[in-house]
Amino acid sequence: MTVDLHIHTVASGDGEFSPQEIIQFAKANQLQAIAITDHDSINSVEAALYWGKKHGIEVIPGCEFSSIYKEKWLHVLGYFIDYNHPDIKQWCDKIEKVRKENVDAQIVKLREAGFYLDKDKVIENGSQPMPISYSRAIFSDHRNNNNQMVNQYRSQENYQLRFCLDWIVTGQPYNAPQYIPAVKDVICLIIRSAGVPVLAHPAATLSIDDDPLLKDLLEMGLMGIEAFTTWHTKEQEDHYYQFCQENGVLATCGSDFHGKSKPHIHIGQVKNNGYKVVERLTNLSHMHKRSDALA
What we know:
Blueprint: E1 2-7, H1 19-28, E2 31-36, H2 45-55, E3 58-69, E4 72-79, H3 86-112, H4 119-122, H5 131-139, H6 148-151, H7 159-167, H8 183-192, E5 196-199, H9 211-220, E6 224-229, H10 234-247, E7 250-254, H11 276-294
């Protein structure tokens, strides 16, 4: 039986499906376990646990936290977090507030750059949109049909995501700056809530030459790297798996399924996704809980 440890629901600003629908997809794909990892949100975890139990799918409570380190935008997955922990709830509430407050500024920035987009389209999937939500609003607005910069992306695979990464995310020319937590604080938060911190899809924002940065993260308490993901080429998979082996950390797997914002990605499509990775995550989580009990 296989697993998928990186799945988004409607609780993410760029997710499409409800927890119940996600469980149905997992069942249809004969998955044994999945992780619910919404962007800075735990709002779908409880429902996913309920539907997972009902349909015989193991659900790992998780979250994908945005963070920054050395001007690099990083996502850290927290597995087996105590989603009722007051620090987790307070953290997610703060990030939601920041994203909501930044919507108008980000729209203004993009309009000043010459793009048409409407706010209702940006927030159609939730009031705390992710960067790709702005990209989607731009590409769906017919007033941009003659924009050469927009059109050069339309023939690319996952063109909305590509445009977003090139122009809108943190550090890119059309980004309206907002508060993003330091990666060390994110890792500490996950560990404090008995969770296991794992770096998501490193090649999304890092190059192979950034391995010294990864070692910094390990010193901060990072316990794994998502080596097998739809973001990675075979060469990148091999590189990050080898890095994990050499440094004694866990290599995880996840599709990063969202729905229509990433239409070519499907639940359960990643490789090296056997149940053993869940067992190792469970052991790491139990280790944290034992440490807390002894403290």
